[in-house]
Amino acid sequence: ICAIGQPFILSSSTPYAALWFSADGRGSATTVSGLTNAVGMAIASLTAPGFVSNPFEIRYNFLFIACFTTVFAIPAIFIPSKPKTPPSYSASNSKERRMPFRESIRLLFTNLDFIIIWFTFGVMCGLFSTVTSLLAQILLPYGISEDDAGLAAVALIVAGIVGAVSSGIFIDKTGKHVWILRAFVPIAGFMYLALLFVVKPDNYGAIVGVCVIMGFCTFSLLPVALELSVECSYPVSESISSPSLWLCSQILAFVFTVSMDALRDPSGDPPENMRRALIMATGISMPMMVIVQFYKSKNKRLAFEKEAAQRQESK
Description:
Mean pLDDT: 83
Distance between the termini: 52 Å
């Protein structure tokens, strides 16, 4: 049931932002709604050890999660379906630009710029989810405790939240989505290379440092990629374009997790190390820095809204 409900939460960020916010607030709104999953992971990582001291107490952790999520779900019942006054021209004509699902998919996957965003987001977000999930298993063979590995994962997520909020505000104020895309994808790629070299005994500080930079840069791409997926594919509905990115990332995260776990080295030095998995992560992430350089699309939705505003003023 949780797995079925998750896509509805992940996919709501850009449609909700487009429906309720104008151009100077959509990036921040997408950031806040898109980060709910990461914030939940951070809270769970910090609180779970306090509720679970042995396997028989895991039910207390689930009880806490159930209570916590129920409290936050109640206000959603009272949120109106849409604002009384549309915040932008693209929000006011959303019904007029609806098109059949097959036509929307055809337009998306014959659009090279969308494919670049779709694939880059899928790889970087899917890889990040995989490394976050396997971080303890990556670090434990080198003498790092489970508590320290958990703290490294929290640092990864918290730095990511800071990065995503910063980039959301930045794109709202400047509209320079592509600048962040082309700058931060290479940095995130190099952080996977750095992680390959810093994961070793008695090097915990460097590991946390790499995790912080990786989290900051990867999460900074979240609002940028989600918004660009809408901008480059407009007038395709936001409820189809951005969820396609989440679908790609979830599928690739599953593939990466299975693949990286299979690359564990039981007879290596140290035993059970995941160095080959980190080599795989580096090899997958580094080419993304080249691919994003081919993204050339203008912000079509912003341009459309600007033209509509100019026509309105001239009347």
